[in-house]
Every structure is written in structure tokens, then in C-alpha cells.
């Protein structure tokens, strides 16, 4: 079976929503455009942000601990949505829809998040745009995941897990289950674009949340460790040769 690019996923706000794309242009040594371009700081994160900022916006990469994250609230994992007609449209099962211009409506997003946020966690404060992109890794990497590995994990756990809890960028159909783990250090091609596979994606407890309900439905880290002897799912890769990629493009290694 020929491997193909099955899904392109982008998350305009870190940990909050996500959208599918038909095509995108990748640039060498850059992240996926528009992915994690925005993030919501917390009170704890403000200390790091204010130590280095220009015009009120952080001007350097900040660690994930500075931001609203699904690991602190499963309800945040159930937020979906992305760009529509120049605005971000966000949905959550227990909330009304929110439509915002992120340049001007950050306060509305923070208020919308408050009912989803645990009282004992550092409270959300403001929406910020990244000097870089707010991925968990400081390096300009893109995540690549396998539909066959997901199917194998679903079969072994006995439950549907879906794409969205993993917050991956590129999903490949046609690899053998877990074949991506053997690609570290290799260059793969998606159409005319070349990417060097750099590292396994280590997972956190946020992946235990069902993204339809906002409730934890599995201990994902325990399941991965018990079934496979590790807590990874997917790989990171750096773009070596840029260009356009589209759904259905052939993937070769």
C-alpha cells in the first residue's frame, strides 16, 4: 500500500481548538504556518513573559508551563474550531460558540475559558501572539503521526480515540503500525517536500481526555507504557526542502 498524506491539522491557538486543511506551503527550517501562533498566558506564565516582551507581546519562545494547557483541564481539550472568514470560531460542548478577532478580542476569550478552568490552577490572563510559534518544542519542528499506529492503539485499548487529542500536524495513511519509530534520522518526502525525522513525540496526560466530552476516558500514559513500553506517539520532523503539500500526496522514506 502506498503511503499518503491523509490529514493536515493546524491549531491557531495553543491547546485551544484546531482545524483541518486541504493544503499548505512548508518552508525549510520553519514550523507549520499559523500553528500555535497564539496562546493564552496564565498568571504563573506572566512572570516569564514580562521579563522579555516588546509592545506588550513576549518576544522570545516560552515553555508550555506558561500557558493554558489541556493537561490542567480536560474541558479545554474539548474545544474545537479554527479560522472562518478572518475570525476564529471556537466551540465547546458546555459553552456557547465564541467568534473572535484574536488581535482585539483576547479578553473575551479569557472570560470564555474561565468556566472551563479549575479553581486551583493558575488563572488565564491574556491572549498573546508568538515572536516564534508556541509549540512545546523550541525547535522548528512539525509533528507527523500515523493512522495505522492509531488504529493499532485503538484496537489494543478497545476504544475509539480519534485524531484530535493528539494535536498532530500531519497524519500519514499507509505505513505499517509504529513504522515511524524507525525513521529517526531519516529524510522522508511528502510530494516534493523533504523532512528529516528528528525525535519521538513524548506524550503527556492531556491525551487522556476525550475531545468530544471534555472528560478523561483513559489513562493514556499508563496504556502506552503497558502496551508498548514507552509513552510516545508520533515523531517530530524538520523541513529540509520546502514546497506545497496537499491531501493525497505520496509519502516516501
Automatic annotation (TrEMBL):
Top-level taxonomic group: Bacteria
Record-linked SUPFAM superfamilies: PK beta-barrel domain-like
Pfam families noted in UniProt: MOSC, MOSC_N
Residues covered by the MOSC domain: 73-253
InterPro entries assigned: MoCF_Sase_C, MOCOS_middle, Pyrv_Knase-like_insert_dom_sf
Name of the featured protein: MOSC domain-containing protein
Amino acid at each position: 500500500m502506498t503511503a499518503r498524506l491523509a490529514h493536515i491539522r493546524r491549531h491557531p491557538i495553543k491547546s485551544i481548538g484546531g482545524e483541518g486543511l486541504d493544503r499548505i506551503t512548508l518552508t525549510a527550517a520553519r514550523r507549520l504556518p499559523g500553528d500555535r501562533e497564539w496562546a493564552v498566558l496564565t498568571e504563573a506564565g506572566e512572570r516569564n513573559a514580562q521579563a522579555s516582551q516588546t509592545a506588550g507581546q513576549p518576544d522570545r519562545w516560552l515553555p508550555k508551563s506558561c500557558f493554558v494547557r489541556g493537561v490542567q483541564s480536560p474541558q479545554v481539550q474539548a474545544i474545537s474550531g479554527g479560522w472562518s472568514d478572518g475570525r476564529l470560531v471556537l466551540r465547546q460542548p458546555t459553552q456557547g460558540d465564541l467568534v473572535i478577532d484574536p488581535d482585539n478580542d483576547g479578553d473575551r476569550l479569557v472570560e470564555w475559558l474561565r468556566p472551563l478552568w479549575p479553581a486551583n490552577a493558575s488563572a488565564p490572563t491574556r491572549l498573546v501572539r508568538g515572536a516564534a510559534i508556541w509549540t512545546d518544542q523550541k525547535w522548528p519542528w512539525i509533528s507527523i503521526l500515523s493512522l495505522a499506529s492509531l488504529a493499532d492503539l485503538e484496537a489494543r485499548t478497545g476504544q475509539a480515540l480519534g485524531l484530535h487529542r493528539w494535536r498532530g500536524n500531519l497524519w500519514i495513511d499507509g505505513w505499517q503500525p509504529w513504522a515511524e519509530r524507525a525513521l529517526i534520522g531519516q529524510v522522508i518526502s511528502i510530494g516534493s517536500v523533504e523532512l528529516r525525522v528528528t525525535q519521538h513525540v513524548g506524550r503527556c496526560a492531556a491525551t487522556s481526555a476525550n475531545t468530544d466530552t471534555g472528560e478523561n476516558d483513559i489513562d493514556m500514559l499508563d496504556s502506552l507504557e503497558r502496551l508498548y513500553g514507552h509513552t510516545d506517539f508520533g515523531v517530530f520532523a524538520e523541513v529540509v526542502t520546502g514546497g506545497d503539500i496537499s491531501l493525497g500526496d505520496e509519502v516516501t522514506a
